[in-house]
Structure formats: C-alpha cells, structure tokens
Amino acid sequence: MTFAIHGLAVARGIAIGRAVLVASSRLDVAHYFIEPSQVAAEIGRVRDGRNAVVEELQRLQASIGQMSPKDTPQELTALLDVHLMLLQDEELSNGVGHWIKDRLYNAEWALTTQLEVVGRQFDEMEDEYLRERKADLEQITEKVLRAMRGVTSPLVHPPGRHGRKTSQQDLLLDDTVDVPLILVAHDLSPSDMLQFKQSIFAGFITDVGGKTSHTAIVARSLDIPAVVGARLSSPLIRQDDWVVIDGDAGVVVIDPSPIILAEYGFKQRQGELQRGRLSRLLHTPAVTMDGHKIELLANIEMPEDAAAALAAGAVGVGLFRSEFMFMGRHGKLPNEEEQYQAYKRAVEGMQGLPVTIRTVDVGADKPLDDTLRDDAHLNPALGLRAIRWSLADPAMFLTQLRAILRAAVHGHVHLLIPMLVHASEIRQTMALIDHARVQLDNRGMAYGPVKIGAMIEIPAAALTLKVFLKYFDFLSIGTNDLIQYTLAIDRADESVAHLYDPMHPAVLRLVANTIAEGHAQNKPVSVCGEMAGDIAMTRLLLGMGLRSFSMHPAQILAVKQEVLRADTTKLTAWAEQVISDEEPSTRIARKA
Ligand code: PEP
Ligand code: MG
Questions:
Q1: Residue 451 above 60 pLDDT?
Q2: From the CA of 321, which ligand is nearest?
Q3: Which residues, 6 or more positions from 478, have their beta carbon under 8 angstroms from its beta carbon?
Q4: Which residues is 295 bridged to in the sheet?
Q5: Per annotation, catalytic residue among 83, 504, 528, 552
C-alpha cells in the first residue's frame, strides 16, 4: 500500500530505490557489494564468526558447570542458554544467507540487516519477556561482528558496484541487486554521514534532525536527495521496501504505485536536465547585471572535497570545517603532522585559490565521537563548544594553530575562529596564535602569513562588532548558529523546525548590520551558513551589500544563476523594506 511521510527537505532531487534500514549504532560496519564468486566465502565468514562466539559461550557454560551449585549464577546460565539459542536460530542464519546470496551484501552488512528484520519482530511481540530478548539479539550480533573482525574480508575497499540508476520500467520489474539503495535510520551523526561520502547509497531518510543540523549539512554536501525529521520513517518502512525521496518537497513515498513512480521518474529526469543547463554557467564569471563581481566560495569538510569545489567553479574555500577530521577517532585526536598534511592537501588541492580553515568546532550536535555524546550537560549547544573547547585545551589548540600556520607556506590560507563572543576570548585566541608562531620559530619550522577572521554566529557578537573589527581581518557570518541563538531554536530539533526562520526580522537585521559595519571599516564580510546557498535568499543578501557567499559546491551554479540575473541598484532599497517588514517572508515571495 502506498503511503507518504512528510519531513524536512534537506538535499534536493529525487531518489528512487530500495530501503536499507540501519541502526545508527551499527553504522560502523562496512557496506559494499560482493561479487557472486565471493558468496560462499562471505557466508563462511559469518559462520566462522558465529561458531567462534558459540564456542566462547560454551566454554563459559562449561566453567559455570564446574562451580558448586550454590555459587552458580542462575541468571547467567539462563542468559547463556538464550544467547546460544539465538545464535543457532535458523531464521537469523537463513536471513543472513539471503542478503548475501540474493542481494550480494557483504557479510557485516547482511548480518546487521537481518538484525533489523528480526529485531522488528521482537518489537512487535506481545510478551514483555520475549520483547526484551531483542537486547540479547543485539548483543550476540555485536559479538559475532567482533569475532568477524579477526577474519576480515579480502575486500578492504568497496569494489565500487554502486546501486546503478535503472529506468522506471526496470524499477517496476527489477528484483536484482542493481538498484539504487536508500538508507533509512532513526538518526545519523555527522561522522556517520561522513562515512557515506564514498557510499553506495543514493539517498537517505532519518526520523529526527533539523534542516541545518550538521547531519543535514553533510548530506547536502554529498549532493544526494535526503529528508530528515521524517518521524516514524524507520519504524514504518521495512527492509527492502521501494521508497521515493523527494528531497525538494521533503516527502518520502513508500511502496509507490506505478503511476506515482512514473511521476517521480519524470521529475527526476527534469532535475537532471536542469542541472545540465546550469553546468553551462561553470566558466561564466559571477557578476551582477550592474557589474558587481561576486565571490562564490565552497564549504568543505575534508581536504579531498577541494576537487568538488574546483569542479563546481568555486573561487576558493570559504569554510573548511576542520572538526570533521577530529571526529570518530575514539578520543585520539590528529597530531600536528597529520593535520598539517591534511591542510596542505586542501591548500594544494585548491591550486592557488584561498582556503579558509576554521579551527575545530566540536560540541553540540557534532560530538567528537558518537559514543561521547554530551548527555551530561543540559544544553550542549550553549556549552563547551567550538572556541570554548579549544581555549579549554590550549595544547590541543596550539597543535592545530601550528599545523594551519605551516600549511600557509603552500598557498593562501585564512584562519577562521568559531563562536567567539567575549573580548577576553578574542585576546586569548590572538595570544595563542602569536604563541604558536613563537613555538614554530623556536623549532626552526617554516610558516606562512594568514589573514585571521571571526565567525559572527552569536547575537552578542553581531551586536558588538567594534571589538571584532578591531582585531580581525575579515568576518564570516554563520547564519546557522546565528538563527539558532537569536531565536532560541535548537537547529537539530525537528519538533521546533517550523520556528527556525532565516527570515525573522531580527536575524535579517543582525546579518545586514554585520555586512554594513564590516564594509564601513573596509573589512571583507562573507556568509558561510546555509543561507548563502539558498537561492531564495541570494537577492536579499545582495541587496544587503553582501559580495562573498560560501556554500556547498553543489549549490554554486544555482546561486550564480541568481547573481547573473540580479541588479543591485534595484535591490538595496527593496532589501531595506524586506528587513523592516513584520513578515519579511511574504514580501520576499513578491520579489524586487
Ligand atoms: C554556521 O553556524 O552558520 C556555520 C557555518 O557553522 P556550523 O554550521 O558548522 O556551525
Ligand atoms: Mg556555526
């Protein structure tokens, strides 16, 4: 039966494919397709992993058997029996065999997929005792996965058999492995998302998350259709269901009828044609009709993203979110050399164009590690985040600063500091940058000149620009956080997503004032939040005087098209009217 779930549109486009349900906690298993000739070996890997766990549990059972009856832990004995029974359960092993043989999933993927299928059956059980056995099932699966780690697949890297885009007709008839796959999860952390940069998934859906949550931001950078905040998707969608993602409307259609499939197939092709048309603008300079040259920069998460930035026609990197290099490392942070090499790769990758490296911004919805989520503090978004975290650990911060300064030998590097608000933090930061230079001098190591900028992303910063303009060479407005902190709306919380309004007059006023004050002091001002890549906002930002936009590479050409059609002589007065309006969004809909 066809049904639809509404969520928040995150990354544009249409994806049609089969659902792959994945629990976030199990995302660290590899997902790739095997060759048919490897089926037996993969099934063997699962069998060996399972047998190793069975043996381990039997050994434990035997040692318990040698205890005196009064010392025998009854609960443990019962638990071992349950675990052994589950391990030898036919449904589990037949199911795993099915995913490997019929879908050519690698062993770990097949095992976690079957865990989701069987786990769901447990969820539906009436008997509470039986329902709770799901936790046992999860435990034994983890054990088998761990045992399998010792018996790793010869395929270290996915062989690149990505879900192939098939025609609509194929989609209706096809029941083979070669169809696009749609990832469905309750939640995904930003570092989970990062794993999907090279992934086989054609789109993804989550139950939770806001439009500018970092998970959504990474999804946008992958440029695959995505919907977040689609509540109840993961409980309602079943493994292998056909699913359509409409990333423009924020809608997910499950089990689409042939007519609906045809309609979305048509929309998908229209989208591809539109992209093709935009690609003709690649080499056109971004200049408004009245002759203003506009700088279109890229936001990147990894040094390797520089290639996509160049390919999209970016004239530099306006925001390199360095924190992604710090995530998912189980607390072991990258050392100076590793960071230096990474920044150097980004700088060289941009072939002489400027690269703005932001110092680490972890915390809030970007935990260093998924296992280290900040549940201890009531308001992590207001807690030890970004520069606060860096200043709390000067040795770590100095390591990063030295690495960035050293990378500046290889090209134009700008250093950007997130989340500053107090003059004392600014002075401390500047002192540490000086200290990093002294340390490099003492070691006789080369470093290059950097321009130093501040993110304006807290209302208090936007209201005290004088001190920022005194110390910094440039400003970069982080609208994602500026909106969150101005309106007191958690950007990652889908339940208040309808109130997260980039067009709130207070937000617009802060953005406009920052641009005007910066320019009045001859300091460059850029916007690097999601607002910069939103074509609905391009004319308004141009009207406010913005000349530098930093966004996901995938958005650059669409924004360039808006720039080419804009005449700033008409936009300035109009922008002032929009900002002064009680409801700017209604006025912007009418355009200048
Ligand atoms: C912002 O806050 O707008 C920004 C660009 O930084 P981040 O999204 O990484 O918090
Ligand atoms: Mg921010």
A1: yes
A2: 1
A3: 418, 455, 456, 457, 528, 529
A4: 548
A5: 528
Q: Is the CB of 502 under 6 A from ligand 1?
A: no
Contact of 365 with 400, CB cutoff 8 Å:
no
Catalytic residue (choose from 186, 214, 412, 504): 214
DSSP characters over 158-206: ----PPPP--HHHHHH--SS-S-EEEEES---HHHHHHGGG-SEEEEEE
Span of 161-170, 412-421, 423-432 with lowest mean pLDDT? 161-170
Q: Is 528 considered catalytic here?
A: yes
Mean pLDDT of all residues belonging to the chain:
87
Residue 44 tokens read as 């063997």
Show the tokens assigned to 454.
């501040």
Domains belonging to the chain, first-starting first, are 3-24+156-278 (3.50.30.10), 36-149 (1.10.274.10), 281-591 (3.20.20.60)
Share of the chain above pLDDT 70, in %: 88
Asked whether 327 and 190 are in contact (CB, 8 A), the reply is yes
- CA separation for the pair 84, 139 (Å, rounded): 12
Task: State both tokens at 149.
Answer: 């780690």
Q: Whose CA is nearest to atom 3 of ligand 1?
A: 478
Q: Is 528 in the pocket of ligand 1 (CB under 6 A)?
A: yes
Q: Identity (one letter) of the amino acid at 48?
A: D
Residue 190 Cβ < 6 Å to ligand 1: no
Closest C-alpha to ligand 1, atom 8: 480
Instruction: Supply the Cα-derived Rg of the chain in whole angstroms.
Output: 26
Asked if residue 313 has its Cβ within 6 Å of ligand 1, the reply is no
Evaluate if residue 156 carries a pLDDT over 80.
no
Indicate whether residue 534 lines ligand 1 (CB < 6 A): no
d(CA 117, CA 113): 7
pTM for this one? 0.78
Read off the pLDDT of residues 78-115 as tens digits, 9 standing for 90 and up.
777 888 888 888 888 899 999 999 999 999 989 988 88
Query: Which numbered ligand comes closest to the C-alpha of 492?
Result: 1
d(Cα 435, Cα 471) in Å, to the nearest integer?
16
Task: Write b or e for each residue in 311-339: b if 16 or more Cβ atoms lie within 10 A of its Cβ, otherwise e.
Answer: ebbbbbbbbbbbbbbbbbeeeebbeeeeb
293 CB-side CA count, 13 A: 3
Best residue for ligand 1 mutational test, from 10, 319, 387, 481 (most atoms within 8 Å of Cβ): 481
- How remote is the CA of residue 456 from the centroid of ligand 2, in Å? 9
Ligand nearest to the CA of 212: 1
Check whether 411 has a pLDDT greater than 50: yes
Closest ligand 1 atom to Cα of 361 = 9
Q: Is the CB of 361 under 6 A from ligand 1?
A: yes
- Whether the CB of 399 sits within 6 Å of ligand 1: no
CB 473 within 8 A of CB 452: yes
Nearest-atom index, ligand 1, CA of 217 = 8
Q: So what's the pLDDT on residue 442?
A: 98
220-250, pLDDT tens digit by residue? Answer: 878 889 999 998 898 899 988 999 999 999 9
Q: Which of 119, 100, 98 minimizes the C-alpha distance to 25?
A: 119
